[in-house]
Amino acid sequence: MRKRSSDNDCAASSVVGKLVTGRGTATVNSALIANESVLTRDACSERPRIGELLVKAGLVTNEQVQAALRLQKEQGGKTVENLIRLGHLTLEAFRAFLGKECHYASIAVRNYEVPRAVISLISREFAVEHQVIPLDKMGNLLTVAMACPQDAATIECIQELTGLRVRALLCDASDLESVIKAYYGAEQQGEDGAAEETDENSIQRAEHGIKLGFVGALIKEIESLPPMPDTVQRVRAAIDDPDSTIRDVVNVVSTDTAIVAKLLSLANSAALGYGGRVTSAELAVKIIGLQETYHLVLSLAALRTFGKASGFDYEKFWDRAVFCGVASEVLARACGYVRTGEAFCAGLMSDIGRVALAQVAASRYATIDPNLCGEGLLAAERELFFLTHAEVGYILTATWNLPAQFVQAIRFHHNPSLASEFVTLVCLVALASHLLEQRGTDAENFEISQSARFAMESLKLDEPAIHSIRARIAGLMRGQS
């Protein structure tokens, strides 16, 4: 038996990534995405490449396939997975392509009675992992049913294992799953006596595998973004040093003119109630406070960590960030939340995941309507990335080891009911985010979402109070411009 390269073995159809389960780490395999051998012509059967078939079907262009192949060469991954990652192909379109456009003979395996002698030709483990079942044997020809009959690697592996030529038929994935369970058994017991997990139907597994591979690559890119600037650590160290003074903190902060400008702007904000004009960084730090100064330095540094991604409106983003910061602070004062600067900074950073996505996937994120917000924005992000900016912001800020209250506020600012700690701060930012969505809406047309309603109830704010707060925020934002 000839030895095949590691890129073309029976396990090559596994999608990149691992699924962490309660019992350890389980590989997530895909019967839907064929391995790299599909991209080369089989000398015997002259199977066309999957890229060629997708181009022929009008789902992608040659240029897009070449871009996916370049990404494959640089970062790995399957061609179809990379086409989806680059935004050239949707998972739904690929599913339809397999089911309707590949022109493979199909069979309703649920109604097909398979001889036990034929079933024994393929082990249960192989059938489950590769989502394939043998149906019939005539001479040296073995007929098998597969969710993806274009998976040349699995077909070649069966041929080597059985010594038979293989003919693959297309079948319904859920039918295939049921038949595998019927002939091989639904579950097996592990060594510890616990039932081993059985796979979901192959299309669901494939979808999960594609998403996991895509999300895994995306998270890796997010986690490799630049670390926080040194200024943040130096301010933190100065604040934590019992022998340091306000002057020591000011000396660190003064090295960054942009941060000094924001400190002065915040110190001069009417919301802080200082009667005079603040013109020095030292006075600004005294008014704002050491801890709040650190939070401000932290949030501003975080938002300035990224380069400029094409197609992303940073000016609009910054305007929205400032609105959310101001709104969070005003809401904090209305609710008696004493750490108003903390609320401002949490609101300011709440959408940092949007900047991160724009940084690691600029062209893809640029396809999202810049005017979207709230559920509309979340839905668009899920469709493109299988993650939302809130989840990305959580991953990023947790990687940066930011204070836990900020991480939680960023993570749950669209779903405050899910927060189990720092609930008040989360609700402040969530309500500020909703007020941003309703910005410019008059009282008659003002709507309250379910998450905003939860936040209002948690903060003990009624609708008249919210309209008063909205007017206050609008006045402060005019002062910012």
Q: What report would you give on this structure?
A:
With 481 residues, the protein is mainly alpha-helical. The chain has three domains: 6-187 and 199-223, GMP Synthetase, Chain A, domain 3 (2-Layer Sandwich); 225-305, no CATH class; 313-481, Hypothetical protein af1432 (Orthogonal Bundle). The chain has 24 helices and five strands. It has helices at 50-56, 62-75, 79-85, 91-101, 116-119, 124-130, 152-162, 173-184, 202-223, 230-240, 246-253, 257-267, 281-288, 290-303, 314-335, 340-349, 352-360, 362-365, 374-385, 389-399, 404-412, 423-437, 450-459, 463-480; strands at 14-21, 24-29, 132-138, 141-146, 165-170. The strands form two sheets. The chain has a three-stranded mixed beta sheet, with helices on both faces. Strands 1-2 form a two-stranded antiparallel sheet. A hairpin with a 2-residue loop joins strand 1 (14-21) and strand 2. Helix 10 runs antiparallel to helix 11 and helix 16 crosses helix 22. The longest helix is centred in the middle third of the chain and has 22 residues, at 202-223. Mean pLDDT is 75; it is low at 1-47 and 187-203.
Number of helices: 24
Number of strands: 5
CATH architecture of the largest domain: 2-Layer Sandwich
State the CATH superfamily name of the largest domain: Type II secretion system, protein E, N-terminal domain
At the third CATH level, what is the topology name of the largest domain?
GMP Synthetase, Chain A, domain 3
Oligomer: single chain
Distance between the termini: 75 Å
Strand content: 5-15%
Radius of gyration: 28 Å
- Outline: elongated
